[in-house]
User: Which sequence fits this backbone?
């Protein structure tokens, strides 16, 4: 019976392992780095987070010639950002919203800000406003000013194209170079 | 004992004897019961004392259970990664870079596994290089690779706030609507 339980546990866990065992990683990472990254992918999978952004972060590090420990640190950091984004956006958030939410949090948004955008942009529409906020801050705009612009447009019911136009307008004006 | 008929051949005689030997011997009910009881006491007969896993019905049930657990695990694995976005059409995005490249310019990013050979730009007039890439809505980090060694961020796009590997990176947000 013990053997049977062990087998069932193994089989029930194997899909997770299969998710983490990406052939792209095997081709581009040394075995130690790959093992670390795969364990992070398993954690992300258990939390219901998207795997692909973490894989892309890994591949980016590999292409840029980063050493293994630095790649692992970057993936760990992104996993933390995605986890926090999920706390603000909820477990029903799409992968695009979680990626944008992670960028917004890293740019200085709080969980409360992310939650407010989620409430004004239901049905998966929070991705672009959050991404625009992150882009504005990355361009040098102050967090408060960037948030004010994004939230104001969100409350007016702006669509995705309007958010992108807002970003371009502010960039051209020099508020976010 | 050999019959006295001259017309009966040896073969016919042997066949008749064999048929009589093959005929069932009538036994009393008591003898038949004793024989069956004796057989039932022999190992491997009577009530099924085999290991549960060696019983066909049990083995089939366990196999079905394992298959169900495995299928559930696969479904859980596939469910993860954020909620799957509904089918959306790709948007054509043009990447352009003005540079004095000697040989090649490529774009690498979250959309092509950061593979410098995946998406080369084509040269045009005035040192202008470009390529059109179909992308799903979302936020992508990318950069250009000039002559296979130089990393150049896109001057016309927001820069990425998260720069984990110390090289310039840009961001593009593709709207859904």
Assistant:
């Amino acid at each position: 019976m013990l053997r049977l339980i062990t087998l069932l546990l193994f089989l029930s866990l194997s899909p997770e392992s299969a998710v983490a065992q990406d052939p792209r990683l095997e081709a581009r990472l040394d075995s130690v780095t790959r093992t670390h990254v795969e364990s992070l992918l398993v954690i992300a999978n258990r939390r219901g987070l998207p795997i692909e952004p973490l894989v892309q972060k890994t591949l980016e590090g590999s292409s840029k010639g980063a050493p293994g420990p630095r790649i692992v640190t970057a993936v760990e950091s992104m996993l933390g950002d995605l986890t926090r984004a999920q706390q603000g956006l909820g477990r029903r958030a799409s992968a695009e919203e979680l990626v944008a939410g992670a960028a917004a949090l890293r740019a200085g948004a709080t969980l409360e800000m992310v939650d407010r955008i989620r409430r004004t942009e239901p049905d998966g529409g929070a991705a672009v406003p959050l991404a625009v906020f992150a882009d504005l801050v990355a361009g040098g705009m102050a967090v408060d000013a960037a948030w004010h612009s994004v939230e104001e447009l969100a409350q007016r019911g702006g669509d995705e194209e309007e958010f992108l136009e807002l970003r371009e307008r502010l960039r051209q004006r020099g508020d976010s170079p | 004992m050999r019959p006295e008929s001259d017309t009966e051949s040896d073969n016919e005689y042997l066949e008749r004897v064999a048929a009589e030997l093959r005929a069932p011997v009538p036994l009393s009910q008591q003898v038949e019961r004793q024989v069956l009881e004796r057989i039932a006491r022999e190992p491997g007969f009577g009530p099924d004392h085999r290991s549960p896993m060696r019983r066909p019905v049990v083995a089939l049930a366990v196999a079905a259970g394992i298959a169900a657990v495995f299928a559930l695990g696969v479904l859980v694995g596939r469910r993860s990664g954020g909620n799957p976005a509904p089918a959306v059409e790709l948007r054509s995005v043009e990447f352009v870079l003005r540079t004095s490249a000697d040989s090649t310019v490529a774009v690498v990013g979250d959309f092509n596994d950061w593979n410098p050979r995946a998406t080369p730009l084509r040269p045009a007039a005035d040192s202008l290089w470009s390529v059109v890439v179909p992308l799903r809505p979302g936020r992508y980090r990318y950069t250009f690779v000039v002559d296979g060694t130089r990393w150049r961020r896109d001057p016309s796009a927001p820069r990425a706030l998260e720069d984990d590997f110390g090289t310039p990176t840009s961001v593009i947000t593709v709207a859904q609507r």
About this structure: Chain A has a mean pLDDT of 88. DSSP finds ten helices and no strands in chain A.
